[in-house]
Design brief:
8 strands; 12 helices; eight-stranded parallel barrel
Length: 277
Amino acid sequence: MMVQPFGARLRAAMDERGPLCVGIDPHAALLRGWGLDDDIDGLEAFTRTVVEALAGQVAVLKPQSAFFERFGSRGIAVLERAVAEARAAGALVIMDAKRGDIGSTMAGYAAAYVDKNSPLASDAVTVSPYLGYGSLRPVLDLAEEHGAGVFVLALTSNPEGSEVQRATAADGTSVASVMLRHIAAENANAPVLGSVGAVVGATLGDVGVDLDIHGPLLAPGIGAQGATPQDIPTVFGDAARNVVPSVSREILRHGPSHEALREAARRYADECRAAIG
């Protein structure tokens, strides 16, 4: 049976549940803030609570793989369960792994995250293109085959990113613009919304580049990093409707109460919907 492409599924989920992605970032400070120990039991309790509270409500959950990997195989087992349970409850899952490599190694990462038969099979994965956009071909091709999505780092909110992303290519355009052009080409024939997206920080103000990639724009930086939903039109302009606003700490800090987490997510989803229009 044909799998509906990620872009179409994402559009439907955001229209139904609101344009919001909630990160699952179980770093030590958040665990302690919830009264949990920074160990595998704390990781499991934190992750289970977020999934139980939000997977039936929000459009997207985005676990940050690093916070699970630091606990070794037991942490990865928690991540596997979280991905499966979140998807079963109706949320789309973006695996925030930011992988980037070449050849068979990139194919291995692709098999881990976007092959529907993998224990870590997610609806989409974040990747880094800075070994050259062509190095992403294994994950782009396998994602298309399995109806999954790919989010390519383009203009990130960290200040160090500009030395690469704002550097100019041989034709005088920025490296970020080159990546965005590649992404737009991937999405050219998508009928609803393309399945290849870009990561563009919501903290950047007017980015001065064309963000009309006919694909989703994952926008971290809302909340603890200083951006607000009201910044979305300024940063993304006419592409704002395709923005996937990502909020982590400003929602997660309301746990471990299920209802407090849900209320914080509802508030952000409503604010993002109003800002996007």
